[in-house]
């Protein structure tokens, strides 16, 4: 899997490690509706350069309501 935005990181909780994808690496992610934040995280997690590309994810940086 690609990680074009360096969103993949590790969360350490009570001695266990979890792989997470931080949507906050995408500019403007904080203003997205909750449903789009879930979609964005899914795209970051599944970026493969074929079915999900960096360009697909970058579209969220320019999202405007309406």
Overview of this protein structure:
By secondary structure, the chain is of the alpha+beta class. The protein contains two helices and two strands. It has a two-stranded antiparallel sheet. β1 (8-13) and β2 (16-21) form a beta hairpin.
- Quick one: how many beta strands? 2
Q: Strand content of the residues, in percent?
A: 15-25%
Mean pLDDT: 95
The share of residues in helices is 25-40%
Largest sheet: 2 strands, antiparallel
Distance between the termini: 32 Å
Shape, principal axes of CA atoms: globular
Please list the strands of the largest sheet in the order they lie side by side: 1-2
What string, H for helix and E for strand, traces the elements in order? EEHH
Protein structure class: alpha+beta
Radius of gyration: 13 Å
Low-confidence stretches: none
Tally of separate helices: 2
Main attributes of the structure:
single chain; about 70 residues; alpha+beta
Short description:
The protein is of the alpha+beta class and 66 residues long.
Write the layout of secondary structure elements.
Layout: E1 8-13, E2 16-21, H1 34-46, H2 54-58
